[in-house]
Write the structure tokens for this entry.
Amino acid sequence: MNTSLLKALLFSSVAAFGLAACDNKGPAEQAGEQIDETVEAVQEQGEQMADEAQESMGVEEQGTMEEMGESMDQAVENMQEQAGDAMDVIEEKAGETMDAAKEQSAEMKQSMDEVAEEAEQRLDEIMEETTEQ
């Protein structure tokens, strides 16, 4: 029993010493805490400077510049789509115009052929009348 009592006393002494040692901050732990505090202070100053810059530019919400960029990208896409649609309409109208011009050309050729045939017939009639006399 003496051995178990000694073991328990030794264990509790080590545990108490360990807990007491945790309260005493060594130089490395103090330096680590100072580094953490400095990093936090720099982050806070950076955030504050970013907020001030946004306010001076008239940008109040975080992400507003990104939203503006996305809006501009969307506007460009819309313009490209509209330009493509306009080109499709122009090509379609140009095709229709060419078809109409070809049709008119064919009709004019037919009319000219008919007029030429009538003129030739009339000329033949005049020649016959002249030779008969």
Notes: DSSP finds three helices and no strands in the chain. Residues 68-133 form one domain.
